[in-house]
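User: hey, got a sec? need Uma2 family endonuclease folded
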Amino acid sequence: MTIAPDDVQRDTARFRAMRDIVGQMRERIPGKFEITKEGIVHDMMAPGRPHELTAAQVSRRLEKAMPDDVLAHTGTPDVEVEAEGIMRHPDVMIIAVADMEGEGSFDPRTLIAVIEVVSRSNPDNDWVSKVRDYPLLGIPVYAIFDPRTGSGAVLSDIHRTPEGPRYATRKDFLYGEDVTIAEWTISTDGLPRYA
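Assistant: Yep! Here you go:
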């Protein structure tokens, strides 16, 4: 499919308009907002304690294994590629400290990996949409922790397909096993589950 310059400009304008709307909604409406190829995703429920505790514990365990110049960051800003029309906010981003400097969204090509903790209210966002979006953004490793099932997966090795970039390798794990994310191996023992 060929995209004419007018189509690119229209898509860029559409993305910028959605980004402005998300900015306004974040100030007034609880929950998490992201932009995908389909439009704005709103996870209406704010993450609960098991979700946030999982993200914090995974971040802490990774940082104990990583060198000082790399962080397992759990804050803002978002990760976006305007040309793809995608803006995401991963639960944990593995990134070099030097790549965090500056203003605006993180460039996803600087991320070493992202980690998502599956939302109880919208699991397809993590298991389907982000599996599609993160390789489009060029994020080399995507790890999913699912407190609903006590399992997860690490996806890596981006390759080209007719539908666009996709992860070629998937390594599933169960809570209690060690898991390797990028270069670092951590325990999943004792991670919280949804009741």
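Quick note: The two ends are 46 Å apart (CA to CA). Let me know if you need anything else on Uma2 family endonuclease.
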